Inverse folding.
């Protein structure tokens, strides 16, 4: 994918959501149906990670990242929080 410039209007067909795969594994998943689509502005790029959680009764917990990947940060509109979009689910819209 060619790098899309910041502030470019884009069409996204997926969003990433943080979830637990098991009690000890935190992952990011593409949380959109096949017909999901929205237009927004590209705010930048971020690096996310999937990894393992360890729970300690006295000290709290510890997160250990196991894999890293890049996503786009897209603002759907001025009233909603920006969302993470997989790089293969975003394309520039030229009008």
């Amino acid at each position: 994918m060619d790098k899309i410039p910041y502030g470019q209007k884009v069409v996204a067909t997926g969003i990433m959501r943080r979830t637990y795969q098991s009690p000890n594994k935190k992952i990011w998943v593409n949380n959109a149906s096949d017909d999901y689509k929205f237009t927004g502005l590209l705010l930048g790029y971020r690096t996310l990670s999937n990894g393992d959680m360890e729970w300690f009764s006295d000290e709290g917990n510890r997160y250990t990242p196991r894999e890293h990947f890049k996503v786009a940060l897209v603002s759907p509109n001025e009233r909603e929080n920006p969302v993470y979009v997989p790089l293969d689910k975003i394309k520039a819209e030229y009008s």
Notes: The chain has a mean pLDDT of 90. The chain has one domain: 9-90.
